[in-house]
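Protein Record: Sequence and Backbone Structure Tokens
======================================================
Tokens: labelled as protein backbone structure tokens, with as many entries as the chain has residues.
Question of interest: how does this chain fold, as expressed in backbone structure tokens?

___
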Amino acid sequence: MFNINKALAVAHTNISEVRIWEDLTLGDKIVIDLKDIKIGHVTKINPSDVRKFGFILENVWNLKIKEIHFFNVPRYAEKIIKLCKTLFNKKLGEKIFLHTSLEEIYKVVPKEILPKEYGGNEKSLHELNDMWLKKTKQYEDRFTKLENMDINNYIRPDFGYNDISGYFGNYMKLEME
């Protein structure tokens, strides 16, 4: 039942949408606990999924991501993460770190903002999850509207000469005279 593409798409879309309206951070330090990851999860990830996720990280989230920290990493996952680092561009690869203990995480993320389960002073994971569920419920109509949006290519203008800007093409491909 686990689908990495769906999980990442929903997470990216919903988190990004809420952050557009409510977040003022200049960057993210992402901390990922892989304690409960099973080999079955890993076998469902194929190289094209890694490349797609890498594309999103490199081109969509790259400026927001300051660091990504993994801990409680099983041996098999450690090898896959190291492989992924080589597939990503150099700048993104340099932002990914593997840690062997929670003590190492404390050096990069203050205890004050870590959940109680990780020795921090913040609310418990259960409380934080409940807060996030309430927040996503607030945005439910927005998420549904975005999910049902579609592009009507019939009304899209041709990519011909633009009198105002003086170029051929669209924002993806410009042909200058």
